[in-house]
Structures are given as structure tokens and as C-alpha cells.
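Need Flagellar assembly factor FliW's 3D structure for a figure. Predict it.
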Amino acid sequence: MFIQTSMWGEVEVQEKEIYQFPKGLPGFEEETEFALIPWEDTPFSYLQSVREKELSFLLVSPFTFAPDYSFELSEVDKEELQIDEQVAVFSLVTIHSQANKSTMNLLAPVVLNPEKQLGKQVVLHQSGYDTRHLIWAEEEEDARSVKGGV
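Structure prediction for Flagellar assembly factor FliW:
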């Protein structure tokens, strides 16, 4: 299947990369079908609306930058997503002009069931996580600068 994107123009996606979000995403409830498109050679992916080329979200596995991240998915969410075993968790990323200020949303992860191709953004009401968790800790950024990195 081919879809239109604002970033890459027309791209081909496989059926297994398309997820149904029965309730949409907060603020975009009418958009219920998204393709998960990996950004090659990076830890990031795009969640691209199948219908609206201007609507996409940058995602990353929160475990890449916050290995101790954990939460318990509610029974209601498990039922809605029809989760038996497999689950994929992503955080929405906000890119800032200064890369070291980029953040990920740990309070409301995007949870995917790759077997049933269902997705939902889940709000973790009683957690200590926030919506603007720095992706790169200050120490990591300083180390990369010294080594000639980003």
C-alpha cells in the first residue's frame, strides 16, 4: 500500500506496519489508522496517518534512553488492545532546535499490539513520569560533545 507523507512524499508500507487506533490519539480522535515507519539507521520511527499526510509523530522506544522505565498496563487497556503476549511501547518525541533539549513523553506512552495491529496512547495517571523527559541526560550530552559527537 502506498501512502502520502509530508516528509518523504509517497512511501510504500506493508499491511503489517499499519495499526488501528480505534479511539484515535488525544486531539486527533478522527484519525484511526497509522503506519509505523522506522527511520533507518536511528532509534526513531514515525507514526504516520494513513489518510492525512501532514499528520505524523516522531516516536522512540523509551527504553533506549530510560532503561529503567516501567509501568503496569491496566486490564482495560490490555483488553482494548487484545494483548496476549507481544507488546511494543513508544514515546512521543518533541524535537527542539537545540538537540540536547529534545524530550520524550513518558507519561503517555503509545502502546502497540503487533499481533493484532492495534494501538492506543495510554495515560499513566498515577506515575511519577512526565511529558517532557529529556532524551539525553546532561552528562551524556557533555560526553558526546567532548568526543566530537552531536
